[in-house]
């Protein structure tokens, strides 16, 4: 019996105009490479096993399903906030 736990990673691309798309997914060494690249480029990393399982069903280049728009939008908004970014035309209260 092996104690090895498979590591998974998913990467999404969002340009601010179109629906986020799946740009990378992988297990173990590929997952570690995806995460290392994200860290290198200071991309925030969000961990959620349930969301990962849903997104892993997509093929590379697929848009996220409409049912996940709100969830993904909240994650993107938080990632932008962490990086000090604001949407075009955003006026704070």
TrEMBL record:
Record carries keyword Protein transport: yes
UniProt entry tagged with the keyword Transport: yes
Descriptive protein name: Flagellar biosynthetic protein FlhB
Family: Belongs to the type III secretion exporter family.
The protein's role, per its UniProt record: Required for formation of the rod structure in the basal body of the flagellar apparatus. Together with FliI and FliH, may constitute the export apparatus of flagellin.
Entries under InterPro entries matching the protein: T3SS_substrate_exporter, T3SS_substrate_exporter_C
Keywords, sorted A to Z: Bacterial flagellum protein export, Protein transport, Transport
Origin species: Serpens gallinarum
Pfam family, one: Bac_export_2
Coiled-coil regions, chain positions: none
